[in-house]
What we know:
Number of domains: 3
Largest sheet: 14 strands, mixed
Number of strands: 31
Strand content: 35-45%
Shape: globular
Amino acid sequence: MRVEILFKRFFHWVVIALTTGWVYGQPVYDSKRMIDGVSLYKDHVDPHVFYYEPGKLKLKILSDGTPDFQFLDMRYTGSKCYNDRGEKSFMSLLQVGVEMQKMDKDFMKRVKVKLPPKSKIIPLSISGIETQLIIPSTGSDHSKKDVVKKGVLESSGKESVSTSRGYWETRVLTIRLNQYESQILMDCLKKKTLGLSLQYSFYADFLGKSDIEFTGSKEVEEHLYTKEEEDKEIVENRIIQSDALPIKVDVEQYPDVVKQLDLNEEIPPAYAGLEIKCYDFKENIRPDLFMKIVEIEAQSVDGAETVKQEVKFLKKNTDLHTYHISFPYAIYVDTPMRYRITEIDIEGKRTIFDWKEKAECSSELDVTTPVKNQNLISKLIEVEIDSENLWQRFDEVSVFFAYMFNGKSKLKEVRFEKETSSIVKETPLTYDKRNPIHYVISSSKDTVTTRRGPNTLIDDYLFISQ
């Protein structure tokens, strides 16, 4: 018994070390300063601690000089899962490796010289990364729109995890494409004058008095601030880095980056055919949870053995919330897989749940803790802008959503930029049931900023035209 108690105490401190990581207190957004082109933020508690932003992304190049780019054109020649026997249909997969620009030792030395003595420079803790792949339409018909696909940057190994010494080095963007989108991508790759574009935004949580006012009415103010928050200090989920990465791949020079595979009722090895999602840590739905392990079992085509894979979601890696997994052997797509969830809480207690069957033909598995039994609501908010009208007057438009989460005020930003952004963006929000979401629209040109609101969000879609 004593050994068990000591283990739990040890595990508790390990959890504190891992989940707080390098966060000494909380970065303050208003303290932002630029040094040698990189943004730094002061810590709310320790005056000697400064946080630096992540670097820009670039296309990863493999050791043989080939771009880390793989387009699998999956052609189904008949499957009950797609109700398409005798017809051709497509379910393709695009995977792109990206690398983050590093802050070298020389840069760190130059920055430290410009900071107070004994200062410590550490990475910001990234709360989330949002990505969109833009595939330009190749048609001359103006009615044909560019394809915009939301993706996720997922782990590709130890180099995909940030530490107290620096940010992650490399990750993989994975996106599924239907028949129409696959054709647009193929046309785009064949026309060397056109290129793909990966738009990305890094988010981080900051503490401080927001410069966005939500005091338009007594009702709004009561919904957003508790009595303990008289100074209106709230956690702000702000964009700290936003850019567009051009992706140009010469398919004539590197023909192996595109592969076509015909399927019937089975999934071939190495095809990342199953998407597993868990938003418990990204949305902080389960503050008591340290780790969630998901085991997946499937039947191999030859029937010789059961194939198993495992993924782990951790409290310290809130921006790793989706994985696409493949199996070492071919498996059937039209037979049920089964999965089992194991949870480990912050006290070290392990809970192993029963095996469950995943619905056959389903390519997604969401293991997020249901919020129906909690006082929370999860929504995916879609924001669209009238770019033709707005970009005539502004260079940047942001929407700030204010809401309550577990009794505390939160602020989240969705930003559109004239040169790099698409016209539609999605952002997930989890908030207290009894308090609505409010928002302010901020539009900027040069040094002039205008703001409208606050308003109450009525549904899951917001259109901004002026």
